[in-house]
Fold this protein.
Amino acid sequence: MSEETPESAMIEKIRTALKLVIDPELGYNIVDLGLIYDVAVKDGHEAIITMTTTTKGCPATDYLRMGARDAAFSLDSIDEAEIILTYTPPWTPQMMSPEAKTHFRIAD
């Protein structure tokens, strides 16, 4: 079992904060929807969040990006946030957490 580092603890705090960002079309948080591909911390104070949307033309893209940025900034130790939007790999419902799949009645 690996030991928790300050960086891994901060990544977990960011992920927890990101769960407060709700996709306005689906009504579910962006972490459990599988829209967050990666969270990293640089120099102890910069969050780097790689995310996607359910479709390339998603009308909520700016809302979700700003929500992710604001979630990172909600943590006292984060004073910079870079939100990287990617469509590789393309999002699919299979990327959802088991809880989200159950909520949306999606079978594995």
About this structure: The chain has one domain: 6-99. The helical segments are 6-18, 61-73, 98-103.
